[in-house]
Amino acid sequence: MKKITLSLLVLLSSVFFLTQSVFSQSCENFDTLTVGAGVAEQLGGYWTTWSGGSDDDAMVADAQSHSPDNSFAVDAGAVDLIFQFGEDPIASGQWLYSHYMYVPTGFSGYFNVQTEPTPGVGWNLQIYFYDDGTGNFGSIPMDFVYTPDTWFMVEINYDLDTDRVQVLFDGVLSLTAVKDLTIGAIDYYGSDLGGPPGSYYDDVCFGPGWIIITDIEEPFMSTNTTIYPNPASDKITIESESIIDEVRIFNNMGQLVYSGQFDNNQRMVKTSDLQPGMYIIEVTIDYTRLRQKLLVQR
């Protein structure tokens, strides 16, 4: 295990939680905006355009909406709306961007993740929705299908600590890939690569994400921390020579299913409420996170 000084870990932890708290409630449903006027023009702040002006702003629309009454439309190549995640590129932590999307039959949609808040510096991820109900992730050789004329949810989860990204459509995992770049903004662009652009976006959110499971050593990367039984049925016991600060359990999609904060060196955690399957249990001790596979079976 890599050794990092306690003072550095405290600093990194403080920055991580401060940054995540800023965006914990960052959502926009566009319902208070004026239909027919620009999104960036009305919202300002972290909503801007590629040019910085109004010519490439996206218009608020009420022809389609996921949550009443408005969304915004990206219906021409001139549209180039930017939603920034903050003032600086983000290089660490787990972050989740999501929106609902509607692509009418015969039209296409497109957006990308920028590496920095300033557009044009670099692209982290591109997603194309073609007018025939198919799509792909740009340079990543992976295709998908979607249903036109229906609102569907798009989630992009970044675990920047492990250089991984996941894309989910309506909660179903479609892509897991390695991405060792920062994230800074979303660019909604009227690309005509997959047909005439004409998509709608609603309920845009950005905030804390989840850990993406990669290769985990077995057992814990620590000789003084143990978990038993494993496989587990109704409960597990965690013991350590040091004080246990926090225990978290993630399912095989990296989604958090249990979290508890403690202040002792032994803790029992119920697993009877978990579905049988493989999980990752994460124990935090003195600002160090230890992870291990946990099998739940009946």
Please summarize what this structure is:
By secondary structure, the chain is mainly β. The protein is 7% helix and 47% strand. The strands form three sheets. Strands 1, 3, 4, 6, 11, 12, 13 and 15 form an eight-stranded antiparallel beta sheet that branches. A seven-stranded antiparallel beta sheet has the order 2-5-14-7-8-9-10. Strands 16, 17, 18, 19 and 20 form a five-stranded antiparallel beta sheet that branches.
Describe the structure.
The protein is mainly beta. The protein folds into 2 domains: 6-208, Jelly Rolls (Sandwich), CATH 2.60.120; 225-296, Immunoglobulin-like. 7% of the residues lie in helices and 47% in strands. The chain contains 2 helices and 20 strands. It has helices at 6-22, 39-43, and strands spanning 26-28, 47-49, 59-61, 71-74, 80-84, 94-102, 109-114, 123-129, 134-137, 140-145, 152-159, 164-169, 172-178, 185-189, 199-208, 225-228, 235-250, 256-270, 277-285, 288-296. The strands form 3 sheets. Strands 1, 3, 4, 6, 11, 12, 13 and 15 form an 8-stranded antiparallel β-sheet that branches. A 7-stranded antiparallel β-sheet has the order 2-5-14-7-8-9-10. The protein is elongated.
List the helices and strands and how they pair.
Blueprint lengths: L5 H17 L3 E3 L10 H5 L3 E3 L9 E3 L9 E4 L5 E5 L9 E9 L6 E6 L8 E7 L4 E4 L2 E6 L6 E8 L4 E6 L2 E7 L6 E5 L9 E10 L16 E4 L6 E16 L5 E15 L6 E9 L2 E9 L2
Antiparallel strand pairs: 1-15, 2-5, 3-4, 4-15, 5-14, 6-11, 6-15, 7-8, 7-14, 8-9, 9-10, 11-12, 12-13, 16-17, 17-18, 17-19, 19-20
Could you say what the CATH architecture of the largest domain is? Sandwich
**CATH T-level topology of the largest domain:** Jelly Rolls
- List segments where confidence is low: pLDDT < 50 over at least 5 consecutive residues: 1-23
Strand content: over 45%
Helix content: under 10%
Number of helices: 2
Just give the CATH class of the largest domain. Answer: Mainly Beta
Count the strands?
A: 20
The shape is elongated
Major β-sheet profile: 8 strands, antiparallel
Helix-strand pattern: HEHEEEEEEEEEEEEEEEEEEE
- Mean of all residue-level pLDDT scores: 87
C-alpha-based Rg, rounded: 21 Å
Distance between the termini: 33 Å
- In total, the number of domains comes to 2
Structural class: mainly beta
